[in-house]
Design a protein that fits this description.
Length: 189
């Protein structure tokens, strides 16, 4: 089709994840045309965007895994730890056990939501509109850490106090992720 219009083209099959194949691609282009003026990488896999209810489970998982970050793992690990503690200590007061399960559930939900692009995009939009608000996540993290230490210390390091403090870790993680996202935005500008 391109040659029918009088233009020239070159196709070189290559795997862009293989450095030797990419080098061979560039060498073939330079050998054919004498130089390389422009390169566009559109390799990868993905699905055509479609409503969630129309996606297969495999497509849904593949799209989420592309957005899996360290924080996604940390939310998941926190949820597993909280669930294990709640199940592993049946003699805990029922209110504390319920708090552990609720926090574990919240951690699992945040883990899933962190793979959706809206979280990152919303954070970036908020940061760009209110550049001075960058101090808020630091304050929230600091407040929660001081609160956790105060609670545990004031209750003489009881198991209940330690677990209550552990429940606040999800808040710290959420705001730490906001800080990382804003750092990434700043490093690109």
């Amino acid at each position: 089709m391109i040659r029918e219009t009088g233009a020239e083209c070159l196709f070189v099959r290559s795997d862009v994840s293989s450095e030797p194949e990419v080098k061979a691609l560039i060498e073939k282009t330079v050998a054919t045309y004498g130089r390389l003026d422009f390169a566009f990488n559109n390799a990868g896999f993905g699905t055509v965007p479609k409503p969630l209810h129309e996606q297969s489970v495999e497509d849904f998982i593949r799209e989420r895994m592309k957005r899996f970050t360290l924080f996604t793992f940390l939310y998941l690990a926190l949820g597993v730890c909280l669930t294990a503690i709640a199940l592993g200590y049946p003699n805990l007061p029922s209110s504390l056990q319920t708090s552990l399960f609720v926090s574990a559930g919240a951690s699992y939900i945040v883990c899933l939501l962190s793979t959706f692009p809206f979280w990152r995009e919303t954070t970036i939009r908020f940061y760009r509109r209110r550049n001075s608000a960058v101090i808020i996540p630091w304050l929230v993290i600091g407040f929660n850490i001081v609160w956790m230490i105060w609670e545990v210390q004031s209750q003489n390091w009881t198991m209940e106090a330690i677990l209550q403090a552990f429940l606040r870790v999800i808040v710290v993680l959420l705001f730490a992720e906001i800080i990382v996202i804003t750092w990434q935005v700043n490093s690109k500008h």
